[in-house]
Amino acid sequence: MNATTVRYILDTMGEMFPDAHCELHHSNPFELVIAVLLSAQCTDETVNKVTANLFQKYRKPEDYLAVPIEELEQDIRRIGLFRSKAKHIQHLCQMLLERYNGEVPEEHEKLIELPGVGRKTANVVMSNAFDVPAIAVDTHVERVSKRLGLANWKDSVLEVEKKLMKRVPRDEWTLTHHRLIFFGRYHCKAQNPKCDVCPLLSICREGKKRMKPIQVRKDKD
């Protein structure tokens, strides 16, 4: 894919979602780490409902360790995989206290060592909490990138990330990450993408495939 096409994709998404941003509610890096950890296989909307009360009750790592694991499980019960996530949260808090004085480290290498924190979470925290350019590849970013040909169908998540980092100017990484998510969440959905009104249909491999049967039916009529 040439640079002109990439620029067109980025500018089009920018026009569609000029205010794209991180939709997980948080007021500091620690809350963001917890929120992103909870968001795995769960919608941001559900996470925000749970953290509205959670962040009132637990304000620092010590607070999460001061309660039995069963109590924390109940507090996040509406979140998928709540038992394993409760364990990750307590282990993460323990590590923050033991290694980093209870503060979230600002280095990517240190972040991915935290329990329950993978590369995606670390990238989200780096970009949103510490203003370090990064592209976190979640399910929306991966789907949209592959449909638009920014990555290949069989690329791993890491390969998608590397290709986006190569094709997108570094100072636009974080913004592009948010716009890809908004585009995938509200427009190019997994099951019912809005192909018929998509300004990127001419570029989209998936969209052309989906629209072909519709055009064939119209031709027959």
UniProtKB/TrEMBL annotation:
Cofactor(s) needed by this chain: [4Fe-4S] cluster
Name of the encoding gene: nth
Family: Belongs to the Nth/MutY family.
Keyword terms of this UniProt record: 4Fe-4S, DNA damage, DNA repair, DNA-binding, Endonuclease, Glycosidase, Hydrolase, Iron, Iron-sulfur, Lyase, Metal-binding, Nuclease
Cofactor binding comment, as recorded: Binds 1 [4Fe-4S] cluster.
Gene Ontology annotations of biological process type: base-excision repair, AP site formation
GO-annotated molecular function: 4 iron, 4 sulfur cluster binding; class I DNA-(apurinic or apyrimidinic site) endonuclease activity; DNA binding; DNA N-glycosylase activity; metal ion binding
Enzyme type, top EC level: lyase
The reaction(s) this protein catalyses: 2'-deoxyribonucleotide-(2'-deoxyribose 5'-phosphate)-2'-deoxyribonucleotide-DNA = a 3'-end 2'-deoxyribonucleotide-(2,3-dehydro-2,3-deoxyribose 5'-phosphate)-DNA + a 5'-end 5'-phospho-2'-deoxyribonucleoside-DNA + H(+)
NCBIfam families: nth (TIGR01083)
Protein name: Endonuclease III
EC number, UniProt record: 4.2.99.18
Tagged with keyword Transcription: no
Residue stretches making up the HhH-GPD domain: 38-186
Record carries keyword Metal-binding: yes
Upper classification of the organism: Bacteria, Bacillati, Bacillota, Bacilli, Bacillales
Task of the protein: DNA repair enzyme that has both DNA N-glycosylase activity and AP-lyase activity. The DNA N-glycosylase activity releases various damaged pyrimidines from DNA by cleaving the N-glycosidic bond, leaving an AP (apurinic/apyrimidinic) site. The AP-lyase activity cleaves the phosphodiester bond 3' to the AP site by a beta-elimination, leaving a 3'-terminal unsaturated sugar and a product with a terminal 5'-phosphate.
Pfam family membership, one: HhH-GPD
Residues where [4Fe-4S] cluster binds: 188, 195, 198, 204
Coiled coil regions, renumbered to chain: none
